[in-house]
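As the next step, I selected for study one protein, both as residues and as discrete backbone shape codes, as given directly below:
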Amino acid sequence: MSLLTAIKISRAPFFALGAVGTYWGTLAAAIPGIKAQAGASDLQLGLALVGGALGSMVAMWFAPRLSVALGRHVLPALAIVVVAAMQLPPHANSPATLFAILAVLGGTLASVDIGANMRLSQLEERHGVHLMNINHAMSSLCFGSAALVVGGLRHAGVDLITIFAVMGVVNGVLAALTYEGRAWRPFQPLDGDAAPAAIPWLIVSMAGLMLLVSFVGETAVETWTALFIERELDGAPGQGSFGPATLGFIMAAVRLLGQVTTEKLGEDRVIIWSGALGVIGILVIATAPGTWAVLIGVGIAAAGLAVIVPTANSLLGKMVHREQRAHAIARAWLFGMFGFFIGPSLIGFIAELAGLRVAFVVVAGLVSAIIPAVLVMTAHKRRG
């Protein structure tokens, strides 16, 4: 199947994940300015990011019901809410305000993210094709592009309110492209194909662990490398955006490659080798003597972390009953989105005590948990 065909099949979640990536790229590149405006220390920034974790966990819990209630309107409606919510960060003038704003953002962005992934899982089953990696490649491409644009605007002295307004217009266009119209079809249970009484929680929890530690690694790199370059390595304002931009572009390229390799090698092998590469890349960042070394580490980490989340989604979707899929994915993402925010928070706590280099070493250790998690899943699959 061609990439264009995959995009056509999954157009709505494709652009929804693009909107998510655009927002996170904007925030990641603007973090040094937002942190300074809010007057937050490393520890206070870490605490503020916990607000995002709380908001995302609430969103994950209600996601399946929200998806059913809004039907074909779920992705465009939530994407428009994100456009409005992303205007809030430039107004954070204290750590407490930043906490509240990130809680709102965490809930809205997590809703779009999980809604898109649940829709993708349904489309994969309906069409019998792998769609996760190319859709997550769109998210990474938009993330890297947004980070590069925002870095350039910051370097040119453009204020944060204007920057977020401009990127909000971009996300408004992406939101409009998420409407499926007549192409949308509700999930139809098969006659006589009743779901098992209990969700296989071992499988769900292992998938959740993979998502959690992968997001810890990914968000730690995207949120803190800008600060690492500009503060620890004395980079110029805006130069730190090269960290998240490198992450986004390489993840996009590797996810496109993963669209092909996952079908040939299988999800479990791809995840194991990707996890090992992610650990190596983060350790390179931790020991980097200069900006170029950091960017090399970011590239290696991006190549490793790129396909873990989409591939784990596909693996989980195949290992649970079709009528359990929405709840299983939502519950796994409940763990995963906690990692999405706890990663940057964890780095903030450790950086306050021991510095950013030690924090990155700790994150590398956590990412290594991906390998035993996928081994447990595949062992359970063979026994089943």
